[in-house]
Amino acid sequence: MPDPESMQEGVRTPGTRKIVHVDMDAFYASVEQRDDPTLRGRPVVVAWKGLRSVVCAASYEARRFGIRSAMPAVRAERLCPGAVFLPPDFSRYKAVSQAVRAIFERHTDAIEPLSLDEAYLDVTTNKTALPTATLVAKTIRQQIREELHLTASAGIAPNKFLAKIASDWRKPNGQFVIQPHEVQNFLQALPVGRIPGVGKVTEARMAQAGIKTVGDIYAMSLPTLQEHFGSYSVRLYELARGIDHNPVVSNRVRKQVSAEDTFAEDLPLNALVGHVRRLAEKVWKASNSNARRAKTIVLKLKTREFTSLTRSLTPRTAIATCEDLTAIALRLLDRVDLPADQLYRLVGVGLSNFEAKDDIAQDSSLAEAEASEFLLQPPA
Question: Which structural domain range is residue 227 located in?
Answer without folding.
Answer: 184-239
